[in-house]
């Protein structure tokens, strides 16, 4: 009989503490949600500024990845062209492929080939530089004149939607969609369809034959 009033007294004295804890927890959750939503909003704005999402895209020409200066390069401007996409890196064993890519650009640009290099730091951290540093490196060491794009991810949650599109259109061996390493190559025909996909070991100059074959095809009148 003595303990019950005492217990009730203790419970009563703890109520303000419980209310304080609940209030602090609520405020913490509120601030956490604000921080999370702010980050999501900031990323969404950046994402929307340069890309068309996979959900709203139906063709290669619906995408608009960013150039190093932050300006969009709408793929719709490349309708009727043959496009070679490559994820590039400056500190990779395959980096000398820049030379072969530039050769393709110089030989076939006037016939309708567009080479697009997308720097990516996802594979061994082999592209750590800024967009400006990458551009300077490529021009100084390989005389690159073809279009370099803004550094992107090609795999994962923040992957460039254009790369998500071409991976979906042309999966690799055993249906694997993800890019395995630097210097994977995707060739897009004059109709905006992915013609083929090649692994890092494939040298750019070895693609001359299939590029010539695609360049020989007329652009669809429906574009």
TrEMBL record:
Keywords: Antioxidant, Oxidoreductase, Peroxidase, Redox-active center
InterPro entries: Glutathione_peroxidase, GPX_AS, GPX_CS, Thioredoxin-like_sf
GO molecular function term, any single one: thioredoxin-dependent peroxiredoxin activity
GO BP annotations, alphabetical order: cellular response to oxidative stress
Coiled-coil regions listed in the entry: none
PROSITE patterns reported for this sequence: GLUTATHIONE_PEROXID_1, GLUTATHIONE_PEROXID_2, GLUTATHIONE_PEROXID_3
The keyword Metal-binding is assigned to this record: no
Reaction(s) catalysed (UniProt annotation): a hydroperoxide + [thioredoxin]-dithiol = an alcohol + [thioredoxin]-disulfide + H2O
Pfam families: GSHPx
Assigned protein family: Belongs to the glutathione peroxidase family.
Annotated protein name in UniProt: Glutathione peroxidase
């Amino acid at each position: 009989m003595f303990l019950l009033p005492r217990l009730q007294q203790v419970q009563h004295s703890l109520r303000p503490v419980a209310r304080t804890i609940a209030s602090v927890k609520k405020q913490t959750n509120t601030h956490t949600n604000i921080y999370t939503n702010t980050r999501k909003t900031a990323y969404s704005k950046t994402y929307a500024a340069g890309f068309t999402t996979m959900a709203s895209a139906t063709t290669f020409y619906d995408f608009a990845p960013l150039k190093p200066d932050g300006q969009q390069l709408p793929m719709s401007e490349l309708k009727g062209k043959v496009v070679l996409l490559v994820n590039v890196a400056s500190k990779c064993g395959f980096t000398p492929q820049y030379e072969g890519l530039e050769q393709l650009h110089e030989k076939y640009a006037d016939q309708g080939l567009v080479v697009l290099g997308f720097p990516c730091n996802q594979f061994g951290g082999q592209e750590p530089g800024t967009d400006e540093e990458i551009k300077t490196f490529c021009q100084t060491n390989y005389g690159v004149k073809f279009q370099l794009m803004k550094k992107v991810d090609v795999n994962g949650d923040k992957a460039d939607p254009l790369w998500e599109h071409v991976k979906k259109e042309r999966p690799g061996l055993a249906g694997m969609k993800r890019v395995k390493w630097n210097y994977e190559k995707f060739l897009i025909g004059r109709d905006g369809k992915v013609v083929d996909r090649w692994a890092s070991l494939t040298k750019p100059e070895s693609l001359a034959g299939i590029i010539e074959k695609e360049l020989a095809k007329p652009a669809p009148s429906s574009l």
